[in-house]
C-alpha cells in the first residue's frame, strides 16, 4: 500500500483486556461485544482473536451476526437489538443467534415462527435508561404470557446509563429495580457492561457483556480502577511534506492557526474522511519522533497539519501516531468534544486494519 495511514490492531492487548476484565468476575461468564465492526477494530479479526476465550459474542443487528458466520465464526451470537422485522426471527435460528426481545411485537413475531425454527431469546428490561426494554411493571406478565418461548438459555438483561461514573447513584437505583423483578422471575441475568464490571460488583451476574474495555477505552471515572487495560488500536500515518513559514502566516482552511514565530509545519496523510475528527482543536496532540507535536489548523478531508517547530530532523515519511500507546484516545476525544467510543467507531474503511501479534 502506498499511503501509510493504518489502524494497527494489537491482538495481545485485546486478549489481555478481555481476560483481565473477565477475571474481575470469576463467577460470571463473559462475552465480547463486537458490534459496530468491533468498535472500529474489525469484527471478524477481533472474533478470531478472542474466540478461544469468549464463548459467545454480542452484536447490535442480525447483519453483523451473519458477517461473523460468513467468516467462519461459530460461537453463539447475541443480537442486542433483537429482530427489526419478523423474518429475522427465522434468520436468527438459521445462524445460531440469540435474539434480545425488548417489546411484545418481537415476541409475537417469534410466536408466529414454526415451533422447531425458533431461536433462543433473552428478555430486556428497562430499569431506568428508557431506551429499549420491557417496563419493570410489565416484565413478569410478559414472561408468564410467553413462557412457551423461553428456554434453558433465556437470560433477563438490562443496560446501565451511568455505570462509568462511580459517584452517580443512578446505577444503584437501576440495580435495585432490576433485582426485584429478576428475583421474582427466576431467570439468569445479564447486567454488566465493561464499566459496570469494573465499578459495580453487584452487577457481575450470569453474563457480563464486555465492550469498550476490551478495546482499551475508558471504563471508570475513578483514578484507580483495579484493572490495567491497554489500547487495542494505534491509529498512525506519515508525514507528506514539511515547510517553514514566517511569523504571521496562517495554516489551513479558514486560517484558524497563525504562526506567532517562524514555524515548521508538517502535513500528515489523514483527515476526516479517514475518521480523524474534524472538530479536533488546535493543539490536539500527536506523536512524532518520540515527541509530542500539535495540530495547527483545521482538519481537512484527507490531511492535517501539525506544528513540529520544536522537533529536530522531521522529514517526509516519518511516522505519526494520532492515538494509541503514546497518545491516549481519550485525550484526543476530549480535544474534539466527544468520547473515545465515537473515535474508534468512526475510523473509516479506507484505513486498513493491520492485526499485529507479539
Automatic annotation (TrEMBL):
- UniProt keyword Isomerase, yes or no: yes
**Which residues, renumbered to this chain, carry the PTM N6-(pyridoxal phosphate)lysine?**
35
Matching Gene3D superfamilies: Alanine racemase (3.20.20.10), Lyase, Ornithine Decarboxylase, Chain A, domain 1 (2.40.37.10)
Write out the GO cellular component annotations. Answer: cytosol
Instruction: Give the protein's cofactors.
Output: pyridoxal 5'-phosphate
Q: What is its EC number?
A: 5.1.1.1
A Pfam family (short name) is: Ala_racemase_C
Q: Known catalysed reaction(s)?
A: L-alanine = D-alanine
Q: Which residues bind substrate?
A: 131, 301
Keywords recorded for this protein, A-Z: Isomerase, Pyridoxal phosphate
- List residues of the Alanine racemase C-terminal domain: 232-356
Q: Which InterPro entries match?
A: Ala_racemase, Ala_racemase/Decarboxylase_C, Ala_racemase_C, Ala_racemase_N, Ala_racemase_pyridoxalP-BS, PLP-binding_barrel
Record: active site: 35 (proton acceptor), 253 (proton acceptor)
Question: Which pathway does it take part in?
Answer: Amino-acid biosynthesis; D-alanine biosynthesis; D-alanine from L-alanine: step 1/1
- MF (Gene Ontology): alanine racemase activity; pyridoxal phosphate binding
PROSITE patterns assigned:
ALANINE_RACEMASE (PS00395)
Family stated for the protein in its record: Belongs to the alanine racemase family.
Q: Which HAMAP family match?
A: Ala_racemase
- What is this protein's record name? Alanine racemase
Which species is the source of this protein?
Answer: Alteromonas mediterranea
